[in-house]
Amino acid sequence: FHFINHRSSVVRLAAEKMMQLTCILLLIMGLAKEAIADKCTNHYPGFEDPNCNYKMYWADAVNVLQDLSQFDALYIKYHACVWSAYGSGEEDNGNCGEDGGEDYWYMGRTQCFRANAAYSLYGVTKESKYNPAVWKSKCNKWTYINSFFTTYGAEIVSDAVGFYDDYGTSLCSSEDGNYSTTMGCSAGTFVSDTFKGSWCNGQYYVNTTDTLSKYNRQMENIQCTKVWDASQYADNRRNLQEEEHESDEAQGDYEGYGSPAEKILYFSRACNLRQYPDACPDPHGLKEYYTKMLERASGWSMGYA
User: Cα separation of 99 and 37, whole Å?
Assistant: First the structure.
């Protein structure tokens, strides 16, 4: 009788231990899944981005911002000027006018386009900084995160890294309402362009007035430039998730952010290789790979990455 009770106690104890281990395992798996979800929150509900399992993949700029604490350093490589969507897409952004856009969207409203910067982002996580793969070059296939376009002009990058140019601006100016000027793109380089009308609409391009040689040289020097250093900026980092940004702040009032990475990434979006095959940077072939993985998982070829 005592032997049976003892055996029952052992079985019960083993079952309790197994239950505890199961709970711990589920908790770990849940935390891991939550961490993965933080890297890939730009997709529709119920869709799991297959690329999230890759250690150095982050789906969009906001995901990198949310995970800044994981990085020891971040670097960017400037690639080219790209005439792409300007602003948040939620309003006319005050700089394009009622008929200033070039691609119709919801309710007949139009999207504004400006000269943005295309760049690739690289990261050294705190756990990988001792990896020999990152010793020789901080910007390589093993540290590549994703490729992006700025959303409020190329000056988001140039201002953040510390150089300024009076002509290097995406703002549209018009003296008489008949013609307007802003920074444009020509074969991947920045130029100063003139347009008919008041709103710098690319469909009404007139001519190029300046090749902006100095500005282009400065941008081309942004090659594996450090924009985040955990030892320098981590203590002063803002909690972006607790802040609300009004439209006037979104148009360039980002000086409050401590690091260049925050200034750049807050006004950037991952570029779409299918929409911009010649402009979205893919220096290591990984962007194409990530895009194909998304297309296979979603069953259609629009692509999100």
Answer: 39
> What is the Cα–Cα distance from 220 to 152, expressed in whole angstroms?
19
- Positive/negative CA dihedral, 204, 209, 215, 219: positive
Q: Where are the alpha helices (DSSP H) in the chain?
A: 2-39, 61-66, 155-161, 213-220, 230-233, 247-250, 260-265, 286-298
Tokens of 50: 């297959």
Model pTM score: 0.77
Neighbours of 86 (CB within 10 A): 27
Is residue 87 within 8 A of residue 234, CB to CB? The reply is no
pLDDT at 19: 52
Strand partners for 274 = none
- Using DSSP, state whether 44 is helix, strand or coil: coil
For the segment 158-173, what is each residue's pLDDT rounded down to a tens digit? 999 998 887 789 999 9
CA distance 101 to 108: 11
Residue 137 CB coordination number (10 Å): 13
